[in-house]
Design a protein that fits this description.
Helix content: 25-40%
Order of helices and strands: HEEEEEEEEHHEHHHEEEH
Strand content: 25-35%
Bound molecules: zinc ion
Number of helices: 7
Strand order of the largest sheet: 8-7-6-9-10
Radius of gyration: 23 Å
Largest sheet: 5 strands, mixed
């Protein structure tokens, strides 16, 4: 952590870092967390400015940071105050994050309950029949992503060219993830504004990531980000979020008669029930089953 002592770094920043280290140790000793790890420069670079209760004014297209001074922002910030600012760097772009109070904006809901199935084929399928396609941009960019990561692997460790290739890859990665986030924002905005109760499957993302075939698609859809957006937008627009337990067989159950299939291949895009003859798009069938979990 030598670099943290470099000249020109604000006292409050180092203080915050040490406070966090203290928290990490106390969590470790209580058995709530692992042993604290050293932060590595170049990986999740960020620092937090804590005004310890005093409020920092925010608003407009520039912001005054302690020591650093005025910096311009790309997007206009809401006119408000905050007590804590986090500055982070992702692929050579700088981001500023802060918490502030948001007034709720209750909206008239046209639908009471909606079930949402997050999928591989479609980004989201709603029990009402509405679907949101996956962003095409990701698929288009995946080839470039592969090419860039191969290029990186060929570079000699520690070389300048490797650093350049690394920066290029990180930049492209960030672009792809921003496209994905943007499409998720459209879905979550629509959901929270127009539906009183939203039921989604509480997916075990880390468990599914271990399955390499699925990993791509899941990373693609950004389930974690989806849930995160729903959590704060349901509060903002006053809707209710219900997380269906991850063992509930929403895909294997017939939404018409309720019987359950023993197995269902991921390639089976249509659900057809042997019991009642019901035939339906797989994702829609799952979404309808999820919507019924609102009452369970
Ligand atoms: Zn059936």
């Amino acid at each position: 952590m030598e670099w943290i002592k470099e000249k020109g770094i604000c006292q409050k920043i180092t203080q915050y870092a040490f406070d966090q280290l203290g928290d990490a140790y106390s969590r470790f000793f209580k058995g709530q967390g692992g042993y604290p790890k050293f932060k590595k420069k170049g990986l999740n670079d960020s620092f937090t400015i804590d005004a310890s209760g005093k409020s920092i004014p925010v608003g407009g297209v520039r912001i005054k940071l302690p020591t650093i001074g005025w910096v311009k922002t790309y997007e206009g910030l809401p006119h408000t105050t905050t007590t804590k600012l986090t500055i982070s760097r992702i692929a050579d772009d700088w981001y500023i994050a802060f918490a502030h109070r948001v007034e709720t904006e209750p909206t008239a809901k046209s639908v009471d309950v909606v079930g949402v199935d997050l999928g591989v084929k479609e980004l989201a399928t709603l029990s009402t029949g509405v679907t949101f396609p996956n962003p095409k941009a990701y698929k288009k960019n995946i080839q470039k992503l592969k090419r860039l990561s191969k290029a990186l692997a060929r570079k000699t460790k520690g070389s300048n060219n490797r650093n350049k290739a690394k920066a290029k890859l990180a930049k492209h990665h960030n672009r792809v993830s921003n496209i994905r986030k943007d499409s998720l924002h459209k879905v979550t905005h629509y959901l929270c504004k127009n539906h009183a109760v939203i039921v989604v499957e509480d997916l075990n993302v880390s468990g599914m990531m271990a399955n390499h075939k699925l990993a791509q698609s899941i990373a693609d859809c950004g389930f974690y980000e989806f849930k995160r957006q729903l959590e704060y937008k349901t509060k903002k627009f006053v809707a209710k979020l219900v997380l269906a337990d991850r063992w509930y067989p929403s895909s294997k159950t017939c939404s018409n008669c309720g019987c359950k299939k023993e197995s269902l291949l991921l390639s089976e895009r249509v659900y057809s029930c042997e019991h009642c003859g019901h035939v339906m798009d797989r994702d829609l069938n799952a979404a309808i089953n999820l919507s019924r979990r609102a009452l369970a």
